[in-house]
Design goal:
Layout: H1 4-23, H2 39-48, E1 56-59, H3 62-73, H4 77-94, E2 100-103, H5 104-109, H6 111-122, H7 131-138, H8 156-165, H9 175-186, H10 193-204, H11 209-226
Parallel strand pairs: 1-2
Helix pairs in contact: 1-2, 3-4, 4-10, 6-7, 8-9, 9-11
Length: about 230
């Protein structure tokens, strides 16, 4: 792209990433959910610096995420749901480097094992590291907010992607299911207007035949994982 605003953004990020790259040796990273909306720009910048990207998606119960956005930012539920679906959609559609999924429920139940798997994926695993000890020093049980939003009733679009993401763990996921869901939800979106009005339409529209088939496939995978 050649638009001035785009090129200015790339230039600014090039400076920031270049500085971070020079300052750190080996693996470094950052956490910001908003990155998913501009991932193609990050890809261009990382490519210019020869940086290998290893994206990690932390998967929480969708109701928990939506309830948190409503409480922290004063959003109406429809707005929070729209933002959630829009961000997940762009994450799954735009990231081409491959994924590593960390399930929040597993992170709170098996933190040492999850930390070890994540370190291995990131290329920083050290056989001498006692991950259970690291967890004991740093893990805060009070951060487990899994019950927030447990009584919230969400739209079909949110339930769809929540069920899909729940079947993935680590680098075990099915790209074809991701592609099918992205294609399904994209047909029901109208750009940024979807963030504020699309969820109400999705509540009213019955699930498409295509998605009913996809839901059956997701349910089948869930049964395989739990038996």
């Amino acid at each position: 792209m050649t638009a001035p605003a785009y090129r200015q953004t790339v230039s600014t990020l090039n400076d920031l990433v270049g500085e971070a790259h020079d300052r750190h040796e080996g693996v470094w990273g950052f956490k910001d959910p908003r990155t998913c909306l501009l991932w193609p720009i990050w890809q261009e910048v990382f490519g210019a610096h020869g940086i290998e990207c290893r994206p990690v998606m932390a998967v929480r119960d969708a109701r928990t995420v939506i309830a948190s956005m409503m409480a922290n930012y004063g959003l109406a539920q429809a707005e929070a749901e729209g933002i959630y679906v829009y961000r997940v959609f762009h994450s799954l559609q735009d990231v081409t480097e491959g994924w590593f999924f960390v399930q929040y429920r597993d992170w709170t139940r098996q933190p040492g094992e999850q930390l070890h798997s994540l370190a291995t994926y990131c290329g920083i695993d050290d056989p001498s590291t006692d991950y259970e000890r690291v967890v004991a020093r740093t893990f805060r049980p009070g951060m487990d907010r899994h019950s927030i939003g447990s009584g919230l009733t969400v739209s079909g679009a949110v339930s769809e992607v929540d069920a899909l993401l729940a079947t993935f763990s680590g680098d075990s996921y099915e790209q074809n299911l991701i592609d099918e869901w992205c294609a399904s939800i994209e047909k029901r979106m109208d750009g940024f207007r979807f963030v504020f009005t699309g969820i109400d339409r999705l509540r009213a529209d019955p699930p498409s035949t295509g998605f009913r088939v996809l839901r059956k496939r997701i349910s089948k995978r869930l049964r395989k994982l739990t038996t």
